[in-house]
Sequence to fold (608 residues):
Amino acid sequence: MCGIVGYCGKKDAGNILLEGLKKLEYRGYDSAGISIIGESSIKTIKSVGKLNNLEENFALSSISGNIGIGHTRWATHGEANLQNAHPHLNSKMTISLVHNGIIENYLDLKKELIAEGYEFKSNTDTEVIVQLIDFYFKGNILNATLNAVKRLKGSYALGIISMDNPGELIAVKNNSPLLLGICDDGFMMSSEISSIVEHTNKIIYMDDLEIAQLNLNGKYKIFNYNLDEIEKEIKIMDLNTNSISKNGFDHYMLKEIFEQPHAVKNLLNKRTIDKRINLSDNFFSKEEIEKFSQIYIIACGTAFHAGEVAKFAIQKLTGKQVLCEIASEFNYNQKFVDEDALVIFISQSGETADTLMSIDEVKKIGAKTMAVVNVENSTMTREVDKVMYCYCGPEISVASTKAYTTQLANLYIVALDMALKLGKITQEELETYVDELYTIPEKMEASLKDLNVYKEIADEIKHEKSIYYTGRGMDFTSAKEGSLKLKETSYIHTEAFASGELKHGSMALMEEGTKVLTVLTQEHTLNKTASNLEELTSRGAYIYAITTYDNEVVSKNSKKIIRIADTMDIFAPMLSVVPSQLIAYYTSLAKGNDVDKPRNLAKAVTVE
Ligand code: M6R
Fold:
């Protein structure tokens, strides 16, 4: 999704902005641009497509200056072209603005401004904001911005520069992430820490309805919307630039797949001490758990699949029913959550608009909330009662991998903690589960050894029009995750079916050579799913099986078998997903796709 960056300081802004934008590339974008305050006017360059185009245009220009803003745009209002690319300027070209978010009342505001004689060049909601600031401008950009943003409905993080206040950069936000970097030579602002970390580790996280005035003289002030100055904590972050490098791998996705064993081990080390669960005040007490009337899990995409696995685990270990819903569906449907419910949100980025919206909805009801999140200090972590971090380091590839397996590890710990506190398992049983969890990293490593099998499968399926994934119970969830991974990276149509549901319609799709990937890791459904394989092969399906079992029916019906290490059934989703991730990765490569940045997708989905 869109990313914004800004700089105000002693150095030349151009390259700092371009480097900052490169760090935001992975979020997904289709055009980019920068504006810099020059000697006598604001200089703006925009380009459609990859950032190289912007860099080339910048290299040909002689633009320099100490204050500037930059943007990568993921088109929402209007196609990806130069007119719609940010920054947007007022008609007098004296104010320039970059925006991340969506303004819901932009059409009303636009009509109002047109009636005042304003003209518009783009189809964006963003141009309305800059013209509105112009409308309120009486010589002070801070005041004009404040008056304008008070009229906006929706989400925004804005960076604003003005030729009439040439020593200032204004940053303001509501419902979109924005943070400030306090550098030795000045200030930075950005949608995320990755573009700041090279310059400073001193970070201020801006909250909603706050506005910052960053000055070239090295001073800064942050106000609320009543213009009362507020003190903000400067956090010292220990993120280093290495954690966002490819570290010798060709792509982030592959690096992140390979990081999983270490990431899971690291998480387990943080969550357990001497085989005991160690959540300190990160989780709820026995009394609180006993009082939960319902348990809900809400998330999107891969995080939702982690939630579905957790549903099985919590139900099995505690006997309590769990309801799992996709955030965008939950938000607009009838709600049965009550104030004694526990609602668990899961998100890599902590910025997913749909999930954040669900948190708002659930908080209105008064339910208890907790979030499993990777990005530290992200918006979600500030909205819920309790937070469990994944601690897997920055996940850059759009396709989520290590966030998923560390989300699972966290959620297994939650399930075990609840079961123990509710007296559903003994400390001895808990230790058996924890011992097994500690074997998972090594068992994941085993799936990372021989990559040829994944490359071969990728080669066999790369020209297919459709590929199907099947499984039952937890394996169906793993099938859904495998299918999503393959779809988003390969652009091949994929779909996951519950094995038992095939006969109720989807079997009609099977014909000679149809490729089907099946997950079989659950003892209680193994024979049933194996029989479904017979039915599939009878109709000509070409089966690849990802399994923990050495089963005769599975062997007879599968063209290729990917054996994963044996584990307790409940933990198998952490292992069965690794081959699926690698098949998706190599299929994307075989098709010549941009594996880390699949088309039309964004890493942090900050709009609904
Ligand atoms: O940041 P989040 O975990 O909240 O993001 C949710 C989904 O957008 C994300 O998992 C998406 O489905 C990934 N591209 C899947 O690989």
Notes: The pocket of 5-amino-5-deoxy-1-O-phosphono-D-mannitol is lined by residues 300-303, 347-349, 352, 355, 398-400, 484, 488, 601, 604-605 (CB under 6 Å). Residues 427-447 form the longest helix (21 residues).
